Amino acid sequence: MGFFEHTPFDDKIHIYYCRQAVHVRADRALLEHLRRGVTGTRKGHMLPALEMARYIKKKYADHFHEELRISDHSLALELMIHMTAYMGGRFLDHDLAYLHISAQNPVRRFVRYVADHVEVIDCGEKAVDTNRFVFDIAAAVRPLVYPAEALSLWVIPTRF
After folding, report:
1. How many domains in the chain?
2. Contacts of 132 by beta carbon, 8 Å cutoff, 6+ apart
3. Under the phi-then-psi rule, with left for phi > 0, alpha for psi from -120 to 50, and beta for the rest, what region is 118?
4. Host domain of residue 54
5. What is the DSSP letter of 70?
6. pLDDT > 90: percent of the chain
7. Within 13 Å of residue 111, how many CA atoms lie on the same side as its CB?
């Protein structure tokens, strides 16, 4: 049996926990948490996405008495990438509407499809999540591409 909670980071961040997966709603509250800066903080400060990933995994373990088998960085990257796709899709759809592009236009329909598809971030273990390998690979090569601090500098559009 799963359970739903509001996080201590922001009571508007919604997370649903179930066996082998968690589901996080992409919305303004999550955006604000992930964009929280680390400028001026001491070394060792957990970055927002990584902090949330660790919190989610701890809460999952406390409730289900077993570990969620997703690495911290894989989960953090999945949150950031999905949130970026969601916000980018919403903004692009808004901009296309502003330019009087019809809602039936194939490009606009595709943009809406992507934004709608990532509105709920489904983070599951390999056994239940068909795209887990993408985030696991991204987490594995992350040290070669950029340091952990780059997660806090990820560009997420700010308009909502």
Report:
1. 1
2. 70, 74, 124, 125, 126
3. alpha
4. 3-153
5. S
6. 33
7. 19
- For residue 151, the SS3 value is helix
Distances (CA, A) of 146 to 10, 68, 138, 140, 152: 28, 25, 11, 11, 11
Which strands sit side by side in the sheet containing 21-25, from one edge to the other? Answer: 3-6, 14-18, 21-25, 120-124
Buried b (16+ CB within 10 A) or exposed e, 34-45: bbeeeeeeeeee
Instruction: Output the six-digit token pair for 87.
Output: 């916000």
Separation between Cα atoms, residue 84 and residue 114, nearest integer Å: 11
CA distance 142 to 55: 21
Please indicate, yes or no, if residue 159 is contained in any of the structural domains.
Answer: no
Specify whether the CB–CB gap between 55 and 9 falls below 8 A.
yes
Q: What is the pTM of this model?
A: 0.79
> Which position has the token pair 């601090």?
149
Cα-based distances in Å from 47 to 12, 119, 151: 19, 22, 7
Question: Is residue 160 in a domain?
Answer: no
Q: Residues 36-63: pLDDT tens digits? A: 754 444 443 447 888 899 999 999 999 9
